[in-house]
Amino acid sequence: MPSTATKPYPPKVEQEHWFFGSAYYLSKDRMSFLRDHCTKHDINWVTSRFLNIAVTNYPAYIQHVLVDNNKNYRKSFGYDKIKHLLGNGLITSDGAFWQRQRRLAQPAFHKKRLQVLTSVMAKHAERMAEKWHSYAKNKETVDISHDMMEIALEIVGEALFSSDVTDKVPIVDRNLTVANELAMQRVLNPFALPLWVPTPANIKEKKAIENLDEVVWHIIGKRRHTTEHYDDLLSMLMEARDEDSGESMTDQQLRDEVMNLFLAGHETSANALSWFWYLLTQYPEEEQKLRDEVNGVLAGRTPTFDDLPNMPYTKMAIREAMRLYPPAWFIGRQSIEEDEIGGYYIPPNTNVLISTFFTHRDSRWWDDPLTFDPERFTEANMKMRPKFAYLPFGGGPRQCIGNNFAMMEMQIIVPTLLQQFQLSLSDTAKIESDPLITLRPKHGMPIRVKHVHD
Ligand code: HEM
Q1: What is the rounded distance in angstroms from the CA atom of residue 13 to the CA atom of residue 47?
Q2: Given pLDDT bands bounded at 50, 70 and 90, which one contains residue 179?
């Protein structure tokens, strides 16, 4: 134990099940448990016979794990449990393999490339506007969370893989929901049986993964059989050669990377947008400010890359929505060797759970934390908070590779739709978050869509 570790170890925990320890309460109702028991100290322990978890929402400790001492932390046990779906891709892999894959994919996200992709994003935003015109004409109330999945998936399909995936949207939406729910159950259940055991849940999960696999193999297969040249992320991955062996990626590696980017590249942005629209329906003053900015800059035009710096309030509002509803609501790591964080002893193989959701609602950094207030993200206000009080895209070397892509896409979609439509929440809407692998609206997002001048 390092001599700098001054806090008692093993730690005292407040609420313990006689057999399963405090992890029992975490798996029963994770959000209430984390809120009531894991925000009292800067490191809070969840213990059981099977694993120990140090939960932190303290910015300096988050920085320690993700940045300062990141070499001592690999991805946590939770990521192993989603390997059925994601394989060994950018999100789940570690070490030298991850580093090589990250280096290969990184150029696809350089600013110059993203600049070109704004027109793809705008095209799909306009297509969604057409769909919303028909809702408005028919005075329909719709669950826009599906629309946000659709637009985000179409953008990722075309921008990264030059593929039109419009007809695949319902398959991906349905099967990813199943996979997301069952993966979370697997993460929480230490007795979850391996996928090859034919329990009803496993059969369902396997089928969902097979259906998603089919979509990914279709994208790869089509590319293998074309003579056309494409300048996109898929080509980069397919043409990449190992520096030492000269070998290309195996089919399985390619499948894993495409699956990682395809899923990570749309699900999170879609959830961020659904929560964003919801918040806007609840805060009319902020909505009006946003409208004034967007109308003033665009006057009815579709936004371009050059317009983005001129709409700072839009960016601030998107950031604020991700503060209250961070799509990646937790980040997990596991210590390799022993460590010490803020006087706490961290033994090897300890899981560290960074609860982004609660960090973003901590009243030490956020006044009136439950209120939606984009002004928190002015340059001056941002400087007043510790860096890791806000981390929707994570941080350090494993920071989201698609962070700029996602911000740009949201900054294009929001003004395009906002210029044309007025949204209100359905009177019967039940809004509740579902903390799966990502933070989804549990009962969807039923919204009435009207034309702005109706
Ligand atoms: C609002 C949208 C998004 C949010 C909130 C988000 C959030 C995150 C977070 C928190 C991580 C870090 C996870 C960790 O440290 O364990 C991450 C990683 C990742 N994200 Fe995103 N993401 C978003 C959009 C995207 C997009 C658009 C793409 C791709 C087009 C993408 C691809 C990835 C990949 C591949 C990783 C793994 C990176 C690595 O470990 O090298 N994400 N994302």
Answers
A1: 8
A2: confident
